[in-house]
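mind reviewing both lines:
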Amino acid sequence: MVQVVFEGRRKSVVVQDGYGSPAHAVLTAAVSIFGLGTKDDAHTSFFLTHRRQRLSLAMTLRESGVPNNAEINLIPSIESGGGGEVKIALGLPSGSRVVGTVPARSSLHAMLQQFASISPGTPEFSAALVDPSSTSIVYMRQSFSGAALEGTTLASIGLSTGSARFTLKLADGVGGGLKSSSAPVMAQNHVSFGVPGDDPMDVE
């Protein structure tokens, strides 16, 4: 359990790994237990702080330096709306990658669809969209597959602006035998969604 304070009220929020849980999971659970809205509301209307420092939703509480039994503060966000965009570098099983700008409200599944629409004929995308249960996307040591691809947005894992790297993995035998690879980048396709003039090569 994690101790969360909102406007002077203190509640114990149950999350699977306690202080080892990603901050975005704690935020979602806290907004629910305080009755403040839905999952989408959580990541566009609130954020978490500890000792007046805003916590990264992409990191666990422990990685952010929050000790066990410490109180976390739930704070309403002035910058609500979640309308930002994120530059994504997506590594493919072949060793190549695609780079583009994706709205923060997009689900991981929608992100794959957007990349697929710009890179028609890429076998990894065809396989991933046909069989989501055999597809996973990895970000910051977290793996999302199956229904989680549709239910997880970029905003919900702490990405509303900036850039991020993801890796697409397919189960062995899916997509004509394609497998995930750690091989060096062999080629890049550069795509952009909704931000004319942005250089997707800015992704770090």
User: Anything to note?
Assistant: The chain has two domains: 2-80, 85-170. Confidence is low (pLDDT under 50) at residues 176-204.
